[in-house]
Each structure stands twice: as structure tokens, then as C-alpha cells.
């Protein structure tokens, strides 16, 4: 489904949420690129496989259109802790992120975060565009070329050395909060050797914090699984020698302020699978603990025909019906 059609039912093409995040509080998501425009084809990606790599930056959508949606949400009075620039692929493929950040800061003092895989940090223009962001969250999932190729599956020419060197250079220039994300995958980068390699590389990057994240959502490849508890704890210990580590405890989602419940849930599910148990908990909060009302709302949402159920590791997830047909 084209990007425009996928979002038309939400009323906004680029902005969704705010979504409750353990790391960023009430986070207003701003999606900058079409599904799925990426430099990588990660084995764990919740958006599915990258069928065609995108490696050249461009302004996919008019900046004024994106800014207008952000301002409209801010003017509505909805509580927002962070404005988070993300992408249905790689965020920094959007050419003009720096100008967008500058415009957002003219309208609000709310901090701006950018979630990125960091694959384009070797480009000076990309590093420069991020200098005014309040927090940047790049990915770093492997401390060796072999694991980098296995986990992140980059486009040709996007080597491990280029990725690491770009992160190191950015860390020298950037003055905001540098929070590196490490996706921990069972049997791949949770071994003692792999964890020590990641720690050694991250010492060169010198991040302010390391965010451990887990592949709890449906992944495109069968071998992707959440590590055992002892390996998660070991990762926490090893990486704590580099920087403060945020333990991968799952946050919660908030729907209390959503004026249109179907539009709010659709906007979230269009960007990543949503755990049904998490959705039900959010509905219980919205209906003040009334389980009958929450269950009824859950049934009504599913009856809309916009979602499909997918089971992974005993957990039920909601995905968009169109995504289900494409997987």
C-alpha cells in the first residue's frame, strides 16, 4: 500500500501519538520516510524485510507539511515530553532533518529526539543536521564485521568499519545526549565474545547511555528470539563498563488522551506490531479499570477490519491487514 493511502485514515500522514515510552515519556512520533526505505535489512526489523535498499537521501515529503502536523498537535494541548523523529525505514534518508529540527524549535521548547540506525553518519551533512537535536539514538548491534553482516544486513558498500567510524566521528562533534541502542538477539550477539566486542567498540564511541532493547515484536526471520534472562543480565554487566545502561524493561502505552481511538491505534499499528496484551492494558486505563468496556473496545477495534492477529512466542500481536498480506 502506498504511504499516502496507509495513513489517510488517521487524519495525519506523518505524526502519530503521543505514545507512552519508558525512555521518552509521552513521545510524539514523526515519520519522515515511506515504508520501507532503508539502508539495512535487519533480521529483527518489526517493519519486515527491506525488499529494495534506499541509499540516497532526499526530501520525501514537503517539510512544511510535516511541520504543520507537528504544530497542530502541539496547539491541541496534548501533553508531549519529546518530539521523536523516526522513519518507516532509516530516518536520516530524509534530506533536511536539520532544517526541520530548527523549525520545530521555533515553535516549542519540547526536546527533539532522532532515532536512526546511524548508517549515514559517515556523511558530514548528516552529522551536521543532527547537531541541534537534544538526543540521538543510533543502533549498534555488533562489534565485528561478521555479526554486523549477519544481523543488520546492510546495502552494498555500507561496511562495519564505515558504520563504526561514522559513530565515533559523530560522538566527537555532537554535544547532546547520545544514547546508543543495542538490539540483543539470542544466540547471536548475546554470547560472551560478542558482548565484549560490542563493549570494546562502544568505548571508542563513548555514548552517554546504552539502551538494551529486545526483539519482542514479530521479526521477519525465524531465528530471531529474546535472549535468556542470564544473558540479558550479563549484557547489562558487560556494557555497564562502557556507560550507564538502560535495562530492557518494557514500558507502557497510553490511550487516555486519544480523541479517536481507532485512528490512534491504527497509527501505531501501521508503524509496528502491537502486543494485544499491551493494548488491552492501555484500554483498561482509558476506561478506569472497567474490563467489560475495555474488552468491548478491543473487539470493536478488531472488527474494524484494519488489523490481523499474529502469534509469536506465545504472545498475540496486532499488525495492519495490509502488512499481513505482504509478509
Ends distance: 13 Å
What's the helix-strand series? Answer: HEEHEHEHEHHEHEHEHEHHEEH
**Mean residue pLDDT:** 88
Low-pLDDT ranges? 1-10
Largest sheet: 8 strands, mixed
Please state the overall shape, judged from the principal axes of the Cα atoms. Answer: globular
Radius of gyration: 19 Å
Range of helix content? 25-40%
Number of helices: 12
Strand proportion: 15-25%
Please report the total strand number as a whole number. Answer: 11
- Biggest sheet, strands in spatial order? 1-2-3-4-5-6-7-8
Structural class: alpha/beta
Explain what you see.
The protein has 12 helices and 11 strands. It is globular, with a radius of gyration of 19 Å. With 327 residues, it is an alpha/beta fold. The model is unreliable at 1-10 (pLDDT under 50). The chain has helices at 3-7, 63-75, 97-107, 124-129, 145-151, 160-173, 192-205, 229-239, 261-269, 276-286, 291-303, 321-326, and strands spanning 15-21, 25-31, 82-86, 112-116, 135-138, 177-183, 209-213, 244-246, 274-275, 307-312, 315-320. The protein has an 8-stranded mixed β-sheet with strand order 1-2-3-4-5-6-7-8.
Amino acid at each position: 500500500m502506498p504511504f499516502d493511502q496507509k495513513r489517510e485514515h488517521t487524519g495525519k500522514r506523518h505524526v502519530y501519538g503521543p505514545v507512552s515510552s519508558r525512555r521518552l515519556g509521552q513521545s510524539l512520533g514523526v515519520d519522515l520516510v515511506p515504508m520501507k526505505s532503508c539502508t539495512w535489512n535487519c533480521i529483527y526489523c518489526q517493519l519486515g524485510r527491506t525488499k529494495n535498499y534506499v541509499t540516497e537521501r532526499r526530501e520525501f515529503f514537503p517539510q512544511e507539511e510535516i511541520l504543520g502536523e507537528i504544530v497542530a498537535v502541539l496547539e491541541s494541548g496534548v501533553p508531549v515530553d519529546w518530539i521523536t523523529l523516526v522513519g518507516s525505514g532509516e530516518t536520516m534518508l530524509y534530506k533536511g532533518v536539520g532544517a526541520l529540527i530548527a523549525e520545530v524549535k521555533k515553535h516549542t521548547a519540547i526536546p527533539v529526539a532522532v532515532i536512526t540506525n546511524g548508517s549515514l553518519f559517515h556523511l558530514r551533512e548528516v552529522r551536521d543536521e543532527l547537531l541541534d537535536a537534544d538526543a540521538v539514538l543510533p543502533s549498534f548491534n555488533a562489534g565485528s564485521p561478521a555479526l554486523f553482516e549477519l544481523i543488520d544486513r546492510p546495502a552494498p558498500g555500507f561496511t562495519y568499519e564505515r558504520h563504526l567510524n561514522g559513530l565515533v566521528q559523530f560522538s566527537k562533534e555532537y554535544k547532546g545526549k547520545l544514547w546508543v541502542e543495542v538490539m540483543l538477539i539470542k544466540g547471536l550477539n548475546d554470547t560472551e565474545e560478542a558482548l565484549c566486542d560490542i563493549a570494546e567498540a562502544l568505548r571508542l564511541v563513548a555514548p552517554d547511555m546504552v539502551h538494551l532493547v529486545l526483539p519482542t515484536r514479530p521479526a521477519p526471520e525465524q531465528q530471531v528470539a529474546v535472549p535468556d534472562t542470564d544473558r540479558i543480565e550479563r549484557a547489562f554487566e558487560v556494557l555497564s563498563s562502557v556507560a550507564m545502561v538502560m535495562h530492557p524493561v518494557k514500558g507502557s502505552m497510553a490511550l487516555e488522551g486519544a480523541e479517536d481511538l481507532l485512528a490512534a491505534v491504527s497509527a501505531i499499528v501501521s508503524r509496528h506490531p502491537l502486543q494485544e496484551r499491551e493494548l488491552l492494558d492501555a484500554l483498561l486505563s482509558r476506561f478506569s479499570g472497567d474490563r467489560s468496556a475495555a474488552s468491548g473496545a478491543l473487539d470493536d477495534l478488531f472488527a474494524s477490519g484494519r488489523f490481523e492477529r499474529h502469534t509469536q512466542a506465545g504472545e498475540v500481536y496486532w499488525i495492519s491487514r495490509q502488512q499481513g498480506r505482504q509478509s
